[in-house]
Protein backbone atom coordinates (compact mmCIF):
# COMPACT_ATOMS: atom_id res chain seq x y z
CA UNK A 1 0.00 0.00 0.00
CA UNK A 2 1.57 3.34 -1.00
CA UNK A 3 2.27 5.98 1.63
CA UNK A 4 -0.38 8.31 0.17
CA UNK A 5 -3.06 5.63 0.55
CA UNK A 6 -2.10 5.07 4.18
CA UNK A 7 -2.24 8.82 4.83
CA UNK A 8 -5.63 9.08 3.14
CA UNK A 9 -7.04 6.19 5.15
CA UNK A 10 -5.66 7.67 8.38
CA UNK A 11 -7.15 11.07 7.59
CA UNK A 12 -10.55 9.50 6.85
CA UNK A 13 -10.55 7.83 10.28
CA UNK A 14 -9.64 11.13 11.95
CA UNK A 15 -12.33 12.99 10.01
CA UNK A 16 -14.86 10.37 11.11
CA UNK A 17 -13.88 11.00 14.76
CA UNK A 18 -14.38 14.75 14.25
CA UNK A 19 -17.79 14.22 12.60
CA UNK A 20 -18.83 11.89 15.43
CA UNK A 21 -17.93 14.59 17.97
CA UNK A 22 -19.87 17.24 16.04
CA UNK A 23 -22.90 14.90 15.94
CA UNK A 24 -22.74 14.28 19.68
CA UNK A 25 -22.50 18.03 20.31
CA UNK A 26 -25.65 18.63 18.24
CA UNK A 27 -27.55 16.36 20.64
CA UNK A 28 -26.41 18.22 23.78
CA UNK A 29 -29.13 20.50 25.09
CA UNK A 30 -27.70 23.95 25.71
CA UNK A 31 -30.71 26.16 26.32
CA UNK A 32 -30.73 27.23 22.69
CA UNK A 33 -33.19 25.55 20.35
CA UNK A 34 -31.64 23.34 17.68
CA UNK A 35 -33.20 20.80 15.32
CA UNK A 36 -30.29 18.51 16.21
CA UNK A 37 -31.85 18.01 19.64
CA UNK A 38 -34.79 16.08 18.22
CA UNK A 39 -34.04 14.96 14.66
CA UNK A 40 -32.48 11.67 15.85
CA UNK A 41 -35.50 10.68 17.99
CA UNK A 42 -37.11 7.46 16.73
CA UNK A 43 -40.89 7.55 16.33
CA UNK A 44 -42.97 4.39 16.11
CA UNK A 45 -44.64 4.99 12.73
CA UNK A 46 -46.79 2.17 11.36
CA UNK A 47 -44.83 -0.32 13.44
CA UNK A 48 -41.40 0.88 12.31
CA UNK A 49 -39.02 3.06 14.35
CA UNK A 50 -38.47 6.06 12.06
CA UNK A 51 -36.22 9.10 12.66
CA UNK A 52 -38.30 12.21 13.39
CA UNK A 53 -36.60 14.17 10.58
CA UNK A 54 -38.20 11.76 8.06
CA UNK A 55 -41.69 12.39 9.47
CA UNK A 56 -41.77 16.14 9.96
CA UNK A 57 -40.30 19.55 9.25
CA UNK A 58 -38.31 20.71 12.25
CA UNK A 59 -37.79 24.44 12.69
CA UNK A 60 -36.54 26.91 15.29
CA UNK A 61 -38.56 30.14 14.95
CA UNK A 62 -37.14 31.45 18.23
CA UNK A 63 -33.93 30.86 20.15
CA UNK A 64 -35.79 28.88 22.81
CA UNK A 65 -38.43 27.04 20.73
CA UNK A 66 -38.50 24.08 18.37
CA UNK A 67 -41.53 23.62 16.12
CA UNK A 68 -42.28 20.19 14.65
CA UNK A 69 -44.75 20.12 11.75
CA UNK A 70 -45.49 16.50 10.74
CA UNK A 71 -46.08 15.64 7.08
CA UNK A 72 -48.91 13.34 8.26
CA UNK A 73 -51.06 15.02 10.97
CA UNK A 74 -52.12 11.53 12.11
CA UNK A 75 -48.62 10.97 13.44
CA UNK A 76 -48.79 13.81 15.99
CA UNK A 77 -49.62 11.52 18.93
CA UNK A 78 -46.80 9.11 18.09
CA UNK A 79 -44.30 11.97 17.74
CA UNK A 80 -45.45 13.42 21.05
CA UNK A 81 -45.12 9.99 22.71
CA UNK A 82 -41.58 9.55 21.33
CA UNK A 83 -40.51 12.98 22.61
CA UNK A 84 -41.88 12.21 26.07
CA UNK A 85 -40.05 8.84 26.06
CA UNK A 86 -36.75 10.43 24.95
CA UNK A 87 -34.04 11.66 27.33
CA UNK A 88 -34.79 15.30 26.46
CA UNK A 89 -36.90 15.98 29.53
CA UNK A 90 -39.10 18.48 27.66
CA UNK A 91 -42.89 18.30 27.61
CA UNK A 92 -44.27 18.87 24.11
CA UNK A 93 -47.19 21.21 23.44
CA UNK A 94 -49.53 19.79 20.77
CA UNK A 95 -52.13 22.09 19.13
CA UNK A 96 -53.48 19.50 16.68
CA UNK A 97 -51.38 20.70 13.74
CA UNK A 98 -47.88 20.97 15.15
CA UNK A 99 -45.82 20.37 18.25
CA UNK A 100 -43.95 23.09 20.09
CA UNK A 101 -41.04 22.42 22.41
CA UNK A 102 -39.96 25.26 24.68
CA UNK A 103 -36.34 24.87 25.66
CA UNK A 104 -35.74 26.10 29.21
CA UNK A 105 -32.42 27.66 30.18
CA UNK A 106 -30.40 25.10 32.13
CA UNK A 107 -29.29 25.87 35.68
CA UNK A 108 -25.66 26.66 36.46
CA UNK A 109 -25.16 23.14 37.83
CA UNK A 110 -26.70 21.58 34.70
CA UNK A 111 -24.50 23.71 32.44
CA UNK A 112 -21.43 22.44 34.30
CA UNK A 113 -22.65 18.86 33.81
CA UNK A 114 -23.12 19.54 30.09
CA UNK A 115 -19.60 20.99 29.82
CA UNK A 116 -18.28 17.86 31.54
CA UNK A 117 -20.18 15.67 29.06
CA UNK A 118 -18.79 17.75 26.17
CA UNK A 119 -15.25 17.20 27.50
CA UNK A 120 -15.89 13.45 27.74
CA UNK A 121 -17.06 13.34 24.10
CA UNK A 122 -13.98 15.34 23.05
CA UNK A 123 -11.70 12.92 24.90
CA UNK A 124 -13.34 9.95 23.15
CA UNK A 125 -12.76 11.65 19.80
CA UNK A 126 -9.09 12.35 20.72
CA UNK A 127 -8.62 8.67 21.57
CA UNK A 128 -10.05 7.75 18.15
CA UNK A 129 -7.65 10.18 16.44
CA UNK A 130 -4.70 8.72 18.37
CA UNK A 131 -5.81 5.19 17.47
CA UNK A 132 -5.89 6.23 13.81
CA UNK A 133 -2.36 7.63 14.21
CA UNK A 134 -1.13 4.40 15.77
CA UNK A 135 -2.76 2.33 13.02
CA UNK A 136 -1.27 4.56 10.29
CA UNK A 137 2.20 4.28 11.81
CA UNK A 138 1.80 0.51 12.15
CA UNK A 139 0.84 0.23 8.47
CA UNK A 140 3.87 2.34 7.47
CA UNK A 141 6.19 0.14 9.53
CA UNK A 142 4.65 -2.99 8.02
CA UNK A 143 5.12 -1.66 4.48
CA UNK A 144 8.77 -0.86 5.29
CA UNK A 145 9.25 -4.35 6.76
CA UNK A 146 7.71 -5.92 3.64
CA UNK A 147 10.07 -3.80 1.51
CA UNK A 148 7.20 -2.04 -0.26
CA UNK A 149 8.48 1.40 0.76
CA UNK A 150 11.92 2.74 1.66
CA UNK A 151 12.92 3.84 5.15
CA UNK A 152 12.91 7.54 4.23
CA UNK A 153 9.35 7.17 2.87
CA UNK A 154 8.29 5.55 6.13
CA UNK A 155 9.71 8.43 8.18
CA UNK A 156 8.16 11.01 5.84
CA UNK A 157 4.84 9.18 6.21
CA UNK A 158 5.13 9.13 10.00
CA UNK A 159 5.81 12.88 9.98
CA UNK A 160 2.69 13.42 7.85
CA UNK A 161 0.61 11.21 10.17
CA UNK A 162 1.79 13.30 13.14
CA UNK A 163 0.90 16.53 11.31
CA UNK A 164 -2.58 15.10 10.64
CA UNK A 165 -2.91 14.12 14.30
CA UNK A 166 -1.91 17.59 15.50
CA UNK A 167 -4.30 19.20 13.04
CA UNK A 168 -7.26 17.05 14.11
CA UNK A 169 -6.54 17.45 17.80
CA UNK A 170 -6.59 21.22 17.25
CA UNK A 171 -9.94 20.94 15.41
CA UNK A 172 -11.38 18.86 18.25
CA UNK A 173 -10.17 21.41 20.81
CA UNK A 174 -11.83 24.20 18.79
CA UNK A 175 -15.11 22.27 18.68
CA UNK A 176 -14.95 21.75 22.45
CA UNK A 177 -14.16 25.41 23.09
CA UNK A 178 -17.05 26.55 20.90
CA UNK A 179 -19.51 24.11 22.52
CA UNK A 180 -18.37 25.08 26.03
CA UNK A 181 -18.94 28.76 25.27
CA UNK A 182 -22.40 27.95 23.83
CA UNK A 183 -23.35 25.90 26.92
CA UNK A 184 -22.16 28.50 29.42
CA UNK A 185 -23.94 31.34 27.59
CA UNK A 186 -27.10 32.39 29.45
- Contiguous low-pLDDT stretches (5 residues minimum) are none
* Main CATH class of the largest domain: Mainly Alpha
Counting DSSP E segments of at least 2 residues, the number of strands comes to: 6
Could you tell me the CATH topology label of the largest domain.
Topoisomerase I, Chain A, domain 4
Order of helices and strands: HEEEEHEEHH
Portion in helices: 55-70%
Terminal CA distance reads: 51 Å
Mean pLDDT: 87
Number of helices: 4
Morphology call: elongated
Sheet-strand content, in percent, reads: 5-15%
Q: In CATH terms, what is the architecture of the largest domain? A: Orthogonal Bundle
Major sheet strand order:
3-4-6-5
Corresponding CATH superfamily of the largest domain:
Ribosome-recycling factor
* SSE-based structural type: alpha+beta
The major sheet is characterized as: 4 strands, antiparallel
How large is the radius of gyration? 22 Å
How many structural domains does the protein architecture include? Answer: 2
Amino acid sequence: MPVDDILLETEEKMEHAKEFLAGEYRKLRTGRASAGLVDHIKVEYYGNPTPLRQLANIGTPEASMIVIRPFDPGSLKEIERAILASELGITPSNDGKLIRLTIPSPSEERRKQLVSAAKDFAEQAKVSVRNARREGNRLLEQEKKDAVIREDEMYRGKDEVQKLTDSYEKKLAELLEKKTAEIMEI
